[in-house]
């Protein structure tokens, strides 16, 4: 049995009432967006003959996602984060704001307030015995090739098990999270450990949704960046390490060709000694080009609830409860 009731006056009137169009209070934009969203969903229910059983099982998944603060994990899996990037890229092109290292998704696991350093920082606490030493370095330049001194390079990444400090309570505070200001030549350097890729928890509601799509929930090994400097466009990006089985098959759609970087293993004793390390290590070089802009709002990261971003903000506090 297939019923089609969406176009009836009764349903259309009902949608107007549900969206609050006949009420004075509330937000006009919220009403319009909710009306469109509900209209699209109601039509979908007609078109796909969605049963009550299917509807309530979807509600159950939404409840589980909310309970685990996992919408921030499912969102990139369903392409929303990448779609926002595509829209911001298009907006940049429209403004004539061209060039520079490409942006890619932030993900839900940034934590504000990491320790700051000038030029160099050690990011790991030395406790991850399985972590290969990583020497992560690069130069920040503008699109004309001039070094940008004093740029703020915020870096965060997972440990050898794919876990992030703060969200993984077994790690020390701000482990594998640092803010490094570039030196006079625009260079930054971090001693850390090679991160592992990771996957959505297998029993999570996020993975439950991906299973229905026949998709995996794996990410390649990657390193997150925020880069900012006065007079330049703020950049949110990340690098994927080359050679990971998921480098070009990232469930979160963050990979961009220009952002795939090799980790080169170095065993030369002279190079090891020069960095004051104990043994062989892997070097990752990521140079960053920043586009120029005078617009102050483009020089800072866009607002979003983030862990520890704002102690007064309920949404930021909630962002810190993600169980991923
Ligand atoms: Fe990540």
TrEMBL record:
Keywords: Aromatic hydrocarbons catabolism, Dioxygenase, Iron, Metal-binding, Oxidoreductase. Pathway: Aromatic compound metabolism; beta-ketoadipate pathway; 5-oxo-4,5-dihydro-2-furylacetate from catechol: step 1/3. Signal peptide: none annotated. The gene is catA. The keyword Metal-binding applies. PANTHER family: DIOXYGENASE, PUTATIVE (AFU_ORTHOLOGUE AFUA_2G02910)-RELATED (PTHR33711), INTRADIOL RING-CLEAVAGE DIOXYGENASES DOMAIN-CONTAINING PROTEIN-RELATED (PTHR33711:SF7). It holds the Pfam family Dioxygenase_N. Residues 136-164 form the Intradiol ring-cleavage dioxygenases domain. CDD domains: 1_2-CTD (cd03460). Its EC number is 1.13.11.1. GO terms for molecular function: catechol 1,2-dioxygenase activity. Gene3D superfamilies: Aromatic compound dioxygenase. It comes from Halomonas rhizosphaerae. Its cofactor is Fe(3+). The keyword Iron applies. Belongs to the intradiol ring-cleavage dioxygenase family. Residues 306-316 have a biased composition (Basic and acidic residues). This is catechol 1,2-dioxygenase. Residues 300-324 are annotated as: Disordered. It catalyses: catechol + O2 = cis,cis-muconate + 2 H(+).
